[in-house]
UniProtKB/TrEMBL annotation:
Keywords: Plasmid. This is Uncharacterized protein. It comes from Methylocella tundrae.
Amino acid sequence: MPREEFGEAEGENRWPEPLRARFARLGHRLIMAQPDAY
Protein backbone atom coordinates (compact mmCIF):
# COMPACT_ATOMS: atom_id res chain seq x y z
CA MET A 1 0.00 0.00 0.00
CA PRO A 2 1.46 3.41 -0.96
CA ARG A 3 2.86 5.07 2.13
CA GLU A 4 2.23 8.59 0.84
CA GLU A 5 -1.52 8.02 1.21
CA PHE A 6 -1.08 7.74 4.98
CA GLY A 7 0.65 9.85 7.61
CA GLU A 8 3.78 7.80 8.24
CA ALA A 9 5.01 10.36 10.78
CA GLU A 10 2.11 9.84 13.22
CA GLY A 11 0.43 6.58 14.15
CA GLU A 12 0.47 4.99 10.68
CA ASN A 13 2.09 1.83 12.03
CA ARG A 14 -0.77 1.40 14.53
CA TRP A 15 -3.21 0.60 11.72
CA PRO A 16 -3.56 -3.08 10.73
CA GLU A 17 -3.84 -3.66 6.97
CA PRO A 18 -7.67 -4.18 6.96
CA LEU A 19 -8.22 -0.92 8.83
CA ARG A 20 -5.84 0.96 6.55
CA ALA A 21 -7.74 -0.37 3.53
CA ARG A 22 -11.02 0.83 5.04
CA PHE A 23 -9.35 4.10 6.04
CA ALA A 24 -8.46 4.75 2.40
CA ARG A 25 -12.14 4.30 1.47
CA LEU A 26 -13.67 6.24 4.34
CA GLY A 27 -11.19 9.10 3.99
CA HIS A 28 -11.91 12.16 6.12
CA ARG A 29 -14.82 10.50 7.94
CA LEU A 30 -12.45 8.18 9.78
CA ILE A 31 -10.00 11.00 10.43
CA MET A 32 -12.80 13.04 11.99
CA ALA A 33 -13.86 10.04 14.07
CA GLN A 34 -10.29 9.23 15.17
CA PRO A 35 -8.33 12.52 14.99
CA ASP A 36 -5.61 11.37 17.39
CA ALA A 37 -5.04 8.15 15.43
CA TYR A 38 -4.06 9.91 12.21
